[in-house]
Amino acid sequence: xxxxxxxxxxxxxxxxxxxxxxxxxxxxxxxxxxxxxxxxxxxxxxxxxxxxxxxxxxxxxxxxxxxxxxxxxxxxxxxxxxxxxxxxxxxxxxxxxxxxxxxxxxxxxxxxxxxxxxxxxxxxxxxxxxxxxxxxxxxxxxxxxxxxxxxxxxxxxxxxxxxxxxxxxxxxxxxxxxxxxxxxxxxxxxxxxxxxxxxxxxxxxxxxxxxxxxxxxxxxxxxxxxxxxxxxxxxxxxxxxxxxxxxxxxxxxxxxxxxxxxxxxxxxxxxxxxxxxxxxxxxxxxxxxxxxxxxxxxxxx
Length: 301
Ligand SMILES: C[S@@+](CC[C@H](N)C(=O)[O-])C[C@H]1O[C@@H](n2cnc3c(N)ncnc32)[C@H](O)[C@@H]1O
Description:
Layout: H1 2-9, E1 16-19, H2 26-33, E2 41-46, H3 49-58, E3 66-70, H4 76-79, E4 85-91, H5 96-100, H6 125-131, H7 134-143, H8 150-163, H9 169-179, H10 185-200, H11 203-217, E5 218-228, H12 231-245, E6 265-267, H13 277-282, E7 290-296
Parallel strand pairs: 1-2, 1-4, 2-3, 4-5
Antiparallel strand pairs: 5-7, 6-7
Helix pairs in contact: 1-2, 7-8, 7-10, 8-9, 11-12
The structure holds S-adenosylmethionine.
């Protein structure tokens, strides 16, 4: 959704923006090369050093207009100072680069050591699986994978773990195949791998911690644009935007306002922006993408 991000995020043609999930630099490059944005500067951040190496080469021609930082956006305040930012972009989830690198264990398509840490700050699924109870594994599969057969799969994983340590993606595939019908197995595998990836990388907590910090760093009329791929992520973003759009959060039974809360955001996308059919045809992973954008309306903290 590069075109939509460009249109909805960049409101200041001389602004300073932060692409908090720069990956290999696709969105950042699109913004920097747009003819109307020749004076825009971008700080690109990612927790994945390998992605940043590629982004660095790709964006070299833009010189000082782009600066790259390795870090987790959950600590955004630690990396950025002052209040001079005109927009933040998050394009959540996993990159094609990470998925394609079989040595990192993100994919069930190839047997590889099971790791899935997105950066040095992520945890290894191998270690997390070794330490979790069957009940915890079941909860992770239910919550993060939205997998209906979470109990059955967790039981199969725990059974396997009783006889051998789970260290490779192939073992996880085997444990799932053990209890899921062949015609349903690929759907189940993608949900299981997604659940463990979200768990190991604390993806929902990262998002929750990021949002209020980004709001505090935004200029008035600066924007936050977030592309999410999971219903729980989308819900976190939507709720935050709705909450920060409210002027008062006192219970309706209170005769007068005592909370002293003021609206900080204006929601730009009442409904999330979805990818076009053409984009979904080109990239099937885009089918679950949702873009939400909000604008800072005051900054007098
Ligand atoms: C979908 S990709 C982004 C692709 C990018 N927009 C592009 O056009 O190339 C998501 C990226 O976010 C990074 N990421 C995920 N969680 C992060 C976090 N908490 N902090 C920093 N980067 C994160 C991943 O390492 C991955 O490179």
